[in-house]
Write the structure tokens for this entry.
Amino acid sequence: MVKLKSNDDKEFEVEEAAVIQSEMIKNMIEDGCATSVIPLPNIDSKTLIKVIEYLNKHINMGKAAETGEEDDLKEFDEQFVNMGWEELFDVIMAANYLNIHELMELCCQSAADRLKNKSVRAVREMLKITNDLTEEEEQEIINDAPWAFEGPEIDDTVN
Amino acid sequence: MDSRHYIKKWRCNVRDPMLTKRVGEVEEETLDDRISRIPDALLVQILSLLPTKDAVASCVLSKRWRYLWNSIYNFHLAGNSYFNNVENFVSLVNHVLTHSTCSKIKKFQLDLPYNPKYKFDSNIEQWISFSVERKVENVVLCSCDEDVDCELPLSICTCSSLITLDWSCCAIDKESVIEWKSFMSLKLDYIFIDNDDIAKILSGCPALETLELCAFDGFRRLEITSSNLKRLTLDRYWWFYGRADEPLVIIAPHLQHLEFLGDFEYLKCRLVNVSSLVSARLTLNCTCVTEIAGADEVDGCADYHQDFRKLVLDYFQKLSNATELTIGRWLAEVCFHVKRPYSLFDFFSDES
């Protein structure tokens, strides 16, 4: 078992087989730097619980294909990314820090799926982006590539 | 807003011994703060998963996003909605390629808009060579226009970074040399190539593992000598230039997975050597000679069907070492018509 500590001082015990899906922790273990608790100063406990849930489910992923558990995993993944933007970005940051390739891919794909075909207005609203461009600057950018902002597929809704 | 400033700030926080004091602050962080804290590289990763048009449109979100998309490493240039406005699609692609700063492209996908009046030949050559110069790994070209051949540009034929290629309405120049050293997977759709072409492709990519040919015609001999090539799929026979009764001979002693899918019309695929097969999926169907348009007038089709029965019997013999076998309705029907006692067919009868 490996002990992880979140930035709000909560400790979690995780099976080594699960936790080595994180390249960062795998390297630490291999280098003998994981003898006691591994502090994760930029992951809070709420996010770490999500990440551990993912790691535990994806343990021995290579075997899933043989045992026919692929569909089960797919369903889990779909449910897993069913979270708000805040939480999704927290998991993306944690996965990036821990270097968990598959989790990164899953979460970035979910973000992309939500943004696909969305209008500029909808994306700004979804991601709460403050537009710091002046109206003139904005118009100039649009004029440079007008066909990127038109088309029947553009969706102006925010869900 | 300089994103690097935020990354730096974030990294400093990591080492901040007083971190526990910041907990309350972190919890109350808004989405806006979170995105500010996300490194550009991660946003580029998300933009790279979008249709490229959407990635381009992100440039107007705010100052920070202005040039982010220039670094995307996957390109999906979808022309499906541009069939009335091909010029705009061409402008989009040219704009994207002019502004891209990516030095290593992971995936380059072009979905050409359907427009019989527009010829993309020179565009394709230019766009593909852009991707080849940037060490592209995966290339997809979709064309909905079956009447137009999209010839493989010379630049891609010797692209050493290429790992997978999926090309529809493909034509291969007789003079071209194919050299794909790290190539793993090839899918050609709607393709007429002769025995020499297919032999040239196979010898040009020694590392090839997967070969998929859809709506194919031309070649009648498929000899796979490479022990790397494990998976072969033939999906639909497409009658290109008149009818040729010659069977397709398959010699692939190292092949492990074989698929025959869809309509094979009258094409007989003869398995000569497939001794290493582990699994086979045969869900093909063939057409009765009386239903083939343009076929010679025939009195009956008994002999024709008898030939297919022999062929199917031969499949079962050749596949006797495979551990997994899936058969489709047509093949099952042919089985049930076989009168001679045969243990395998008895099994199928029991199942029904």
Q: What stands out?
A: The first helix of chain B runs from residue 3 to 14. Residues 1-27, 340-352 of chain B have pLDDT under 50 and may be disordered. The CA atoms of residues 263 and 285 of chain B lie 5 Å apart. Chain B touches chain A through 46 residues (CB under 8 Å).
